[in-house]
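Dissemination and training. As part of the outreach component of the grant, students in the summer workshop were shown how a complex can be specified as a set of sequence lines and then modelled as a single object. The example used during the hands-on session is reproduced here so that future cohorts can follow it. Participants entered these lines:
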Amino acid sequence: MTPTEAATTWLTAFDRALAAGDIEAAVELFADESYWRDLVTFTWNIATVEGHDGVRDLLRSCLASTGPGNWRLDGEATETDGVVEAWITFETEVARGNGHLRLVDGTCFTLLTAMTELKGHEEPSGDRRPMGVEHGADPERRSWLERRRAEAADLGYGTQPYCVIIGGGQGGIGLGARLRQLGVPTIIVERNERPGDSWRNRYKSLCLHDPVWYDHLPYLKFPDNWPVFSPKDKIGDWLEMYTTVMELNYWSSTECLGASYDEAAGEWTVEVVRHGPDGDPDRDEAVTLRPTQLVLATGMSGRPNVPEIPGADSFEGDIHHSSGHRDSAAYAGKRCIVLGSNNSAHDICAALWESGAAEVTMIQRSSTHIARSETLMELALGDLYSERAVASGVTTEMADMIFASIPYRIMHRFQIPVYEAMAEQDAEFYEALEKAGFLLDWGDDGSGLFMKYLRRGSGYYIDVGASQLVIDGKIKLRSGVNIERIEPNSVVLTDGSELPADLIVLATGYGSMNGWAAELISQEVADKVGKCWGLGSDTTKDPGPWEGEERNMWKPTKQDNLWFHGGNLHQSRHYSLYLALQLKARMEGIPTPVYGMGEVHHLS
Amino acid sequence: MTPTEAATTWLTAFDRALAAGDIEAAVELFADESYWRDLVTFTWNIATVEGHDGVRDLLRSCLASTGPGNWRLDGEATETDGVVEAWITFETEVARGNGHLRLVDGTCFTLLTAMTELKGHEEPSGDRRPMGVEHGADPERRSWLERRRAEAADLGYGTQPYCVIIGGGQGGIGLGARLRQLGVPTIIVERNERPGDSWRNRYKSLCLHDPVWYDHLPYLKFPDNWPVFSPKDKIGDWLEMYTTVMELNYWSSTECLGASYDEAAGEWTVEVVRHGPDGDPDRDEAVTLRPTQLVLATGMSGRPNVPEIPGADSFEGDIHHSSGHRDSAAYAGKRCIVLGSNNSAHDICAALWESGAAEVTMIQRSSTHIARSETLMELALGDLYSERAVASGVTTEMADMIFASIPYRIMHRFQIPVYEAMAEQDAEFYEALEKAGFLLDWGDDGSGLFMKYLRRGSGYYIDVGASQLVIDGKIKLRSGVNIERIEPNSVVLTDGSELPADLIVLATGYGSMNGWAAELISQEVADKVGKCWGLGSDTTKDPGPWEGEERNMWKPTKQDNLWFHGGNLHQSRHYSLYLALQLKARMEGIPTPVYGMGEVHHLS
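and obtained this result:
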C-alpha cells in the first residue's frame, strides 16, 4: 500500500465512522498511544485528547453538534521511518478545516484538526477581495477615505465595537487584522503613541531573537530583503505601517483604566483615556467602551516581576526593571549590576559593556539554558523556518501547521536530540562558559529552549554575543547568589560580598498574564481564570497537573467573554486565526459549545 | 522531438555559435521574420532588432564585449499551435540573465534576453539578506536606527548621492527601492508633503484603473485582501509605508528649481528647496545636490497640456486642468463643462454628476476608445494579471516577462482579436453609446486600448460607469466640436452654440516627458533627447519612423547621465529593474557600451 492509499483508507474509515455516529469504530482507528489535537473545529476550544479514552470522550461530547464530513487528503501522503504523514481537509456543519495526520501501522498516532474559515463568513481575499471601486454612478457615493474616516470617528462613540483588544503590540495588531478581515468591529487600545513603540522604546541594541521566517504577521509577509533578525526600530516601523495598511481602529496614546463585566447584559464596560497630542492633560478624553468581548493582548511578558529588595529605596544610583531599560549609553563609566541571566539580562549586559560602562556584573541566581543563535537556527528551526525551508516548499503556513501537529505531551521527545546535537556541536563554547562560572542547564529533561519557552516562558538566553563577553570576563559574573540588600552605592550579595553600583537593572522577568486581569478587572476575575501560559509539565516553574495546552491562551477562559492573546510572533500569527474565528462565531450567533474546560489549578 | 528537445537543440546551437564567435551561424538560427528583444544584457540598452540583418548587426556590435554563455532551459518547454515556447537563463561576462524563446519549425521567431543581476553585485535578498543584528560585542556598534538616521542626515550634505530622482510617485519610489537594494546612494525629490500625495491630491472618486495583480511594486506585493482597484488614498498610504519600509531617502516637500550638467566633471548640479513644516518660507532650505545620474520620474502624465482658449481670462467661474481638479462636491448646483473625453474627463464628469452638479457637459473633440473595465479584465488582462492567472501559477514576474517577450512590432496582431471579441461581447453597449452621439474608435488598426497607451499614452476611457451616464444623457455630450472661446459665464463651441458655465475643466491631457527636461534643465537638452514615449507606429499621435521601443524610456538618452522613468505600475515595476541595473553598472565602473542609439526624430 502506498502512503497515500494508507492515509485514504484510514480517512475513509474515519469519515464513515463519524458519519454513522459510530464512536467506538472511530476510537478503534486510534493507536493506544495517540493524540488528537483540535483547534476550534470539534471542541470550540484548543484542546488535545489522548488515547482511546480521550478520543471517545471528545466524540461523545462533540460529534453530534459538529457534524463533520467531506474528509479529503490534500496532496500525496509521505512515509518516513514507518510513519505515514498526510495533509487533510474537512468540513463541519458551520466551518471548513484543515489538518494533519500521522499513521503508524495503519492506526492514528497524531491527528490535528484546525478551523480555517466559517461557512458564509469567508474572508474577502483572493477571488473574494473587494472591488475597491464601485462601478456605476451613485450620487450617494462615499470614497474609501470618507468611509474609513467615518468609521474611525463613529466606532467607540456612535457604534460600540464588538471586541476591544487591550494592548497594541504585535499580538493585538495581528489579531486586529484578522478581526478586521472577518468583519468584527474592533478597537485596539494602546498606551504608546505609535504602533511599534513597544519595540522602539526598548534598549537600542535589541533585535528580534527569532529569525524573519518565524516572524511574519498574517496576510503580509516581510519582503525577501528583510533582515534575519529585525532591529527593534525596523520592526516598529513595520508594525506601524501594517496597522495603517490593514485599516485597524487603533487607539494609540490611550490608557485602559479598568474593565468590568456585566453578566446579565453580557457586556463589558471598559474605561479608557485617550491622551491628547504632546501629552497635554487638558486634552485628555475619557471614553467608556461597551464591547461584548474583551481580549488582553498585553504581552505574556507584559507585567514586570519586581522583587522587593531591602534597601532599594536608599539606592542613590538608578534602579529599574529590564523592561524600563532604554539608554545604555547613559551609563558609560558607571558600575552596573544586572540581576538575572536570561535574554534581557544578557542583552543589557552586552549593551552596557558596548556603551563603555566601567564595570558590568551579571548576578546569576540559578542555572540558565544558553543556545547559540546560529546553532539554534541550524538545528532547531532550519527545517521549518529558514531560507532552506522556503526553498524546499515549506511555506510559513505549512510550517505553522507542522509545528502545531506535534502534541505538547511528546514534543520534548523531538526536542531532546536537537539539544544533544547542540551540546556536542558547541561543546567548546559550553566548556568555556562553565569555566567562567556560568551555571548551565538544558531544561529539566534536557529538552532545551523551546520547551522552556512553552512551559515557563523563561530560563534561557539565545546567544548573539554576550556569552563571549562572559567567557572573556568582560561581563563579570557572580553565579549562585542573589542580591541580599541594597546600600546607597552598592549591592550586598547573599554570600556577603559587596559590589559598588551606580546602576541596578532588575532583569527579573514577568508575571503571568492574569496579573493584567487583576490590574484591569479585579483580583477575583484573575483568580477565577487562573494562571496563563504553561502546560502543567511538572517541571521547574510549570507545576502540574498536565493541561495539554497552554493555559488560557487563545481560547475560552473561566470568565465569559474574556480572552488572552499573546506569545511570540509565530504564535501570535498562527493562534490569532483561531481566536478570531471563535470571536466571529460568537458575534454571528453560531453555537459554540466548549469542550474540555478544565479546572483552574494555579492562581499565578 | 518534444518541445523541450526542440528548445534544447536550438539553444545548444545558439550557445555554440556565440561561443565560437560564428555570427552567421547564429543569424541562421533566426527565422526571416524574427525579433530579438534585449533588455540591457547585450546592448546596454532596451532594444529590439528584427530579422537576419538585425540579429547580425546586434551581434557584430555586441558579441565580443558581452561574452555570453551558460545558456540553459528553465523548466520544460511547451508547444501551442506549432509554436514552441521556453524559459531560458544565461550569463554574460558581467551579469546573469533570463529570457524567453519562441521557435517555429525549429528556428527562432522571438527571443527575449533580460538582465536579472550583475555578478558580484547581487541584491541582499533571500540567502543574502542582511543579518540585522551583528552578533558579538562591539563598543562602536551603531543600531539600525542610528545608522539610518546618520545616513539620512549626511546624504546630500556630507556625501553626495550617486543618483537623484526627480519625482516621488510610484515610479520614483519603485526605482528608489531597487537602487537602495543595489547599494546606489539615491535621493528622491518630491514636492508633495507625503509619499502618495500625488494620488491623494486628486479627485475623490479616483481609483486605479488597472487591477491589483498588475500593480504590485517591486519586493513587496499587495496582500491578498487588497481591493481589485485601489482607491487613491489607499494606494497613497501604501506608497507612504513602502517608502519607509524600503528605507528610501525621500525628500518630501522639496522642489527642484533646476539642473545642469557639467560634461567635463560628469556631474549634475541640482538645485532644490526643502520646504519647512507648514510651508513656513522662513524655514525653507536651499540645497545643491551633485549627483552623477539624474532620473526624471515626474510621470509620463506629469506636465499638463493647457490649451490657450480666447477669453479664458475673462471667465468668472473656475477653470482648471484635470490634474488640478480635486473637489467635485464644491460644484453641486453648478453648470460644468469638461473639455476632453479620455479617462480623466469621464471620471470627472461622473464625479461632478454624483456630487449634484446642475449640469455636466462633456465636449468630445475627437473619437475615443472605450473599453468596459470588466470586459478588459476578462479578455485583455485575465491570462496574465488576475486571480485566475495567479491560481494557474503565473506569478507577476512571469506575467511581466511574458508580456515583455512580445515584440512591439507585432503586438497589435495579438491585440486586434481581443478587441474584436470585446466589440462583439459589448455590442449593445457600444450601440447605445453611438446612439448618444459618442464618437467611438478602436485605434487606427483596431488594436484597442493597450496599443493606444503604448503608442500615444492617451485616447481611451476604461469604463467604470461614466459611459452609462453618457448613454442616459445624465452627462450631456457635445461631440465633434471644440471650445471656440470663453465668455465670462459661458463657453462658445466651434459650431456656434453657447453653453452657460460655472466651471470649466480642461481634461486635455499631458505633454511629452521631455517637457520636464525643458523646464528643469534647458530647452536645448529637451530637444537633444527629443520626444519621450511612443513607438513610431505611424498612427495618430505616434508619428514614424519605427523606433522598436518606447522612446527614451528606462534607457540611455542623447544626454549623458539623464534618464526618464515612468509608465503605469506594471511598467514602473518591471523596467525599474533594468534602469537600476544600468545605473548600478555605471556606478561600479562596469563598461556599458550602448548599442542602437537611434536618431531623434521628434522634439515633442
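The longest strand of chain A covers residues 107-118. Students were then asked to discuss how this feature might be tested experimentally.
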